[in-house]
Amino acid sequence: ALIRLRDYRAPAWRVETVELDFDLGIEATELSARLLLRRDASQNLPLRLDGENLQLLSIALDGVPLPATAYRYTGNVLEVDGARDGSVLETRVRLRPAANTALEGLYLSGSHETGFLLTQCEAEGFRHITFFPDRPDVQSRYSVTLRADRARFPVLLAGGNPDGSGELEGGRHWARFVDPHPKPSYLFALVAGRLEKIERDYVTADGRAVQLKIWAEADAIGRCGYAMDALERSMRWDEQAYGRNYDLDVFHVVATHDFNMGAMENKGLNIFNAKCLLADPDSTTDDEYRHVEAVVAHEYFHNWSGNRVTCRDWFQLSLKEGLTVFREQSFSADMNSAPLKRIEDVSLLRRAQFPEDAGPLAHPVRPAQYSEINNFYTATVYEKGSELVRMLAGALGRAGFRRGMDLYFERNDGHAATLEDFLGALGDANGTDLMPYLAWYGQAGTPRLKAHGRYDAVRQEYTLTLAQHAPGTAGAEPRPALPIPVKLALFDRDGGMLPLHLDGQTSEGITELVVVLAQVEQRFVFGNVASSPVPSLLRGFSAPVILECDYTPGELALLLGHDVDGFNRWEAGQQLAARAYEDLRDGASADALQAWCAALALLFDSHGIDDALLADLLTPPGEVELAERETAIDPQHIHHLRQRLQLRLAERLGAEALHQRYLALAAHTTIDMDATSQARRRLKRRVLELLNLLDRARAGELAAAQYHDAPGMTDRLAALTVLLRGQAPQAASALLDYRTRYADNALALDKWFAVQAQIPDEDAPERVLMLERDPGFTLKNPNRVQALLGAFVRGNPSGFHRIDGAGYRLLAERLIALDALNPQVAARLATAFNGWQRLESQRRGAARAAIAELAGHHGLSRNLAEIIGGVLNH
Ligand code: ARG
Ligand code: ZN
């Protein structure tokens, strides 16, 4: 059954207060819920509550036990007769946490003997715990009492402020938490078990003393310090950048190895996938460190953008997710290098969101309908959603955006809001109308932006024509033009920036400005232009579009060499490399390839450039991005072409120069986490990878030494990857060493599975089968599934898409087994079939057969069925 945005109705019943009383146990947990009900008098509807396969033990209305004739429970809806405004409904249910493999609702993390209990409720997990109107526009005050055996569950946590605890008979104890802030049910959480903690005192800018506590199992608590620092930085940043203070006396964060997603912003009790929280130099790479910092910030920022102001319904999901990703990205840019962060974010957008938006699973940032909401926690809702907020922020400027956000929080505090509320507040605070941007939220597909420049030497004028068109939507209704902000600069042929005089206006000294394309096509005329310029367009990636501009290779090389916008410099290199790739593929001229290599060779020797940026400049677009340029995709051919492209670059730089650079960088190896040390490691890895293409023996020796001497995971994993890619003789012993060294470190072991799953050779499917037989592999742990199967289907295009279809069959078989355990994880993995229609015909046939067989399987979850149906039927 499809849920539709246009069918939204306000809730007929609300819950003013909730009292939950848990008797916790691993095998069985019982809980009583006491709901104070409020009825919307304008709707004359019976009381209907969500409740998913709950074992109902007792039910009473206004203190009177209900006879079986007074209520009906279908397995997902409980209908109760006789409820009035102000009625109190009491239910008692029994749950089976240890049997819950879906990791939604109340479940067990770890073993029966030593594991702990926790909850995950977003989006609709609360209905797996108790009967409730489980929708975000019902906001209630929660009091939660937990009771359990003290020895087995020494730590008892729930959201809100602590409100007492004590002993009970028979070695049991209790703890109560009261949350003063009304919240939707998806933000409920509890945790109970044997956990250790680290603590820090924090005082908010508005003077509240807060205890920050991070909890983890004993073997992990030593790796929580970095997250604590990141949390404190996030709290300060939100005070300064947005004037937002924390609003409870405690802030709990818990790490678990068993989690379907990255992390969850439950009010006062954030729960994290361990891979997004734990960090130490021995087991965490630099990229992962930055990811931990970003996710800690993301969940913390949700306290305002998500919790204090929540979503009216799940169609508005990007209201909190797109906004919070934007806030998180801005924070990371402030804490680290802003241009590098932008490159990372746009790369992710192109790798994950553009293909999604171009395939059968494409949906608007605000979807119009869904069958299973968990399938809509997508790159489109998150990453494209963030890009839309970025455009709005850009349109208002720093001060204007802050004014708008202040008004948004003020107007909607304690409410469940819509995207219209968001755009309305941003616009009203600035006396401007941002509603035209709403069109961005309602249409799927990546818009194309065509740019064409014409220079008139006589009039000294440069005319830039910009035009937009929506992606292939045959038969669809005509779409409104989108407002597309284009940040631009003009360069002269020596690489200097020209002053900009747009449409006769003269503004002294302006060399960069934003024009907004508001119609299908528009012309912008720049005066006083002394010579034919090279435009730098869409600087900083000012809009999430695909730019089509008829640059010559020389013009792109000029931007690559001279653009001062770090992002656009990288972008020019990416465009040039993509051209070189297409020329290689088509056997066309080598102009672009030569221009790319020559420009990079200059930068390589110049030393005037940040090591990390240089590493990124030396990396051509990935295989997934290159595939977006093809009509009949052959991933193995793409892989080989991209390898040839990199080999040419390596040849241009030269084995000697690469080797010397490697040694110079290696001489400074540390395990420090400062930007310079991270940048050095990044470039060192890239240089070693390029050398590995030229001279495997030499690179293999360097990598083997680097593996053994590595002071931290970044260097160790990089070396291991190089050994595996080069099929070095030292690879086997390094793999064995790693397996033994990290036998008890789940997060490090995940990477052992992932690097091997990503080896891009013919044997990849068989290698995955072999790795599945490792005793460390299990389908029950989402991180392990992601590490092996996820890395294979998403991180190894040429291996997964082997022409005989072995990869597709393997995925289809695993999806069936996985779906029976954990539908959310199965559905996410299944999106790897997205794009199969654009494969060349033999692979397409094999993929279709595997998907069709899967679709015919009996009893697929709603999650998986929706993805498979979507992938097949378009
Ligand atoms: N709200 C969480 C976050 O982005 C993610 C929850 C994902 N939930 C899901 N059912 N997929 O911070
Ligand atoms: Zn989020």
Overview of this protein structure:
This is Aminopeptidase N. GO terms for molecular function: alanyl aminopeptidase activity; metallopeptidase activity; zinc ion binding. Residues 226-434 form the Peptidase M1 membrane alanine aminopeptidase domain. Residues 555-870 form the Peptidase M1 alanyl aminopeptidase C-terminal domain. The protein has 874 residues and is of the alpha+beta class. The protein contains 26 helices and 31 strands. The chain has an 8-stranded mixed beta sheet with strand order 6-5-9-3-2-12-15-14, with no helix packed on it. A hairpin with a 4-residue loop joins strand 20 and strand 21 (269-273). The longest helix has 34 residues, at 379-412. The chain is globular and about 90 Å long. It starts with a strand and ends with a helix. The model has no long low-confidence stretch (mean pLDDT 97). Zinc ion binds next to helix 3.
Separation, N- and C-terminal Cα atoms: 18 Å
Mean pLDDT over all positions: 97
Specify the biggest β-sheet: 8 strands, mixed
Q: Strands of the largest sheet, in order across it?
A: 6-5-9-3-2-12-15-14
Shape designation: globular
Radius of gyration: 28 Å
How would you classify the helix and strand content by structural class? alpha+beta
- Our estimate of the beta-strand percent is 15-25%
Low-confidence spans: pLDDT under 50, at least 5 residues? none
Q: Which ligands are bound? A: arginine, zinc ion
- Percent of residues in helices comes to 40-55%
Number of strands: 31
Specify the number of helices.
26
